[in-house]
Specification:
4 strands; Glutathione S-transferase Yfyf (Class Pi), Chain A, domain 2; 2 domains; four-stranded mixed β-sheet
Length: about 210
């Protein structure tokens, strides 16, 4: 039987978002690790924009946005109810991440390519969004309440990327304490560890 095929890049936060949802849903698939400097023609044929992740389904449907892959996967199976019924706030958080936070994160991480301002300036702009998320996490353990949701999975890889630019600085920010606790929870989560371990990609344990 034909399997879905996922074009991914291990360190890309968008691809991490997609892989976490696919792993959580126990979707068995063929994983293609992409070299960004040498993108496979098969992927470019499916999605000419040339960014990962790209999920090609046996039906012929192609999903080339990480949000769409996340929702598709969790609609196949959602054992821990990550798809919150509060879809309005879920989508709003993903939009805030992708449209507001990510552009500043890119400028902070790759500041050499953005000489208009200092890296500290770009960091301060990204920090505004992180402080807002920290405020949410001071009220509850996860972004949409007491239980994990797709919002946490969708945003976590980008917070991880921000923190890794300068982890000593990140770890000393008093206004990000709740966010750090949340980040560390996801860094230790079995799903994240599995999707980052090449030998464990989509290798599921036997059911109890």
């Amino acid at each position: 039987m034909a399997l879905p095929r996922l074009f991914s890049f291990r360190r890309c936060p968008y691809a991490m978002r997609a892989r976490m949802a696919l792993y959580q849903a126990r979707v068995t698939l063929n994983l293609v690790e992409v070299e960004l400097k040498n993108k496979p023609e098969a992927m470019l044929t499916l999605s000419p924009k040339g960014t990962v992740p790209v999920l090609a389904l046996p039906s012929g449907e192609v999903l080339d946005e990480s949000r769409d892959i996340l929702f598709w996967a969790l609609r196949q199976a959602d054992p821990d109810a990550w798809l919150s019924p509060d879809l309005e706030h879920l989508n709003a958080l993903i939009n805030e991440c992708d449209q507001v936070f990510k552009p500043w994160l890119d400028r902070y991480k790759y500041h050499v390519g953005y000489p208009e301002h200092s890296p500290e300036y770009y960091r301060s702009q990204a920090l505004k969004t992180l402080i807002a998320w920290n405020s949410r996490l001071r009220r509850s353990a996860f972004l949409l309440g007491a239980r994990p949701s797709a919002a946490d999975v969708a945003l976590f890889p980008f917070v991880r990327q921000f923190a890794n630019v300068d982890r000593p600085w990140f770890d000393t920010q008093d206004n990000l304490q709740a966010l750090r606790i949340w980040l560390n929870h996801w860094l230790e989560h079995p799903t994240f560890k599995a999707i980052m371990n090449k030998s464990l990609y989509f290798s599921f344990p036997d059911p109890p």
